[in-house]
Amino acid sequence: MDGFMVVCLCLTALISTPHSTSAKELSITTIKQDPYTMSRGSELEGYCIDLISEISRKLGFSYKVHLVKDDHYGALDASGSWSGMIGEVMRGEADLAVAPLTITASRERAVDMSTPFMQTGLSFLLRKDVAFEEHRLGFTSPFSVEMWVGVLIAFLLTGFCVFLVARISPREWESETGGHSFTLVHSFWYITGALTLQGAGPHPKALSGRLVSAVWWVFAILLLVFYFANFSHMQHDDNKHASIKNFEDLSHQDGIDYGTLEGGSSKAFFKSSNNPVYRRIYQHMERHKSYVASMEEGIARAQQGTYIFIGEAVSLDLAVARHCTLTRSEEIVAMRAYAIAGPLDSPLMKNLTVAILQLSESGELTYLRDKWWPTSCMGVEESHSENTLGLRNLQGLFILLGLGLGLGLLIALLELLAKARGLAKEGKKSCCSALSTELAQRFRGGPESADPESSDKSKA
User: Fold this and answer.
1) Do 165 and 230 lie in a common domain?
2) How does pLDDT run across 406-443, given as a tens digit for each residue?
3) Domain check: are 39 and 108 in the same one?
4) Are 155 and 114 in the same domain?
5) Residue after which a domain boundary falls, among 91, 123, 155
6) Do 150 and 184 sit in the same domain of this protein?
7) Which residue positions does UniProt flag as site: Crucial to convey clamshell closure to channel opening (predicted)?
8) pLDDT under 50 in the chain at which residues?
9) Do both 118 and 30 map to the same domain?
10) Is 102 annotated as ligand-binding?
């Protein structure tokens, strides 16, 4: 009877093993990194927070999450001690480390790692104008597409305005022949000559025409100044650094600095590699001490265009989605995986592996990936090159041109109105009748108005 009771107790213990952690609240260490773990007020959120929540629901344990004290993932120092989350798990300060922890041979010897919950590899992050420099430079590159459209519209409006002003203003009509020299074709030819700093006569004689002409000349000169200044600046940038598409390109250039996380698995990969390209990269990073303390620092320096950040592709994809001036190299090397770390010989690790596999098979891991990784840039405005001038940069120039054209048309109308009033007094008719007669004759292309009596005499 006593033996039967012992067997029953043993079976009960074995059956309850998967849920044996429910009696104890697990301490879980993690590290802040978007989008794995982020702060939302006093609470934490992100991919890893959702992951541990789903696992705890399956395995039935309670837990408490805290951030790693030294803000490191875990590396072996010269004294043989582990830092970061790996060190906390080894010292018993945490039961699990749930974070984008890369599985490495040295970490597997120090702790137990679960089956991977995400696959990734090493790539690098840089600004777009550094990555695709050879495609950018051309005669249209100093201005954005919107800017060129704006210049074309300004050209058409100015040509038409010169034509209107010359038609309306009485001084632009030749007194001998009653003809008009500023046709529509000549108006556009005239402003084209101004745009190329050559000039094309005849020039406007009226105040309104001279005002429109002067404003267009100012617009054309300043536009050319900005164009050639930005063209020279972009050509200087091209000579500073070449296009960088892969790790070999990266290792053969010294024009722009690059590095990775201090004390991370990425650094360890380059350090232990026998590949000549990766050895050159490691020697450069050691020589220039170009490591960064966090992902955020690496991304911020890459945005400035003076640094290339080497990191894990899945994390760099998030930076590219959030900052449209950045791009990730298509080359991915050193494929690795993220997993959960626990103490050596922990009975919980087997259950964790089963739970992660179940989440993968049910599509939950894919759902979490889609939830926390945006698929496109959040800020569309950032997609334009910082070196390209757009309408926003030169909007004052277009406003000046618009005001000049409007004022020129107004003065031309006042000039015509003054002449119409004089003709109305001479002919003893209404000002509106004289004004309408003048406008009709100008836009029919006929001679300037004449006195009706003199017209009758000429017919006789």
Assistant:
1) yes
2) 998 888 888 777 777 777 667 656 667 666 666 666 66
3) yes
4) no
5) 123
6) yes
7) 244
8) 1-22, 133-137, 175-178, 239-241, 379-384, 446-460
9) yes
10) yes
Q: Is 37 annotated as a binding residue?
A: no
Q: Clarify whether residues 88 and 172 are in a common domain.
A: no
Determine the structural domain holding residue 117 and report its residue range.
2-123
Could you give the angle at the alpha carbon of 79 between the alpha carbons of 78 and 82, nearest 5°? 90
pLDDT digits (tens, 9 = 90+) for 216-245: 889 989 988 888 888 777 766 554 445 788
Residue 141 marked in a binding site: no
Is 265 annotated as a binding-site member? yes
pLDDT recorded at residue 377: 64
266 annotated as belonging to a binding site for a ligand: yes
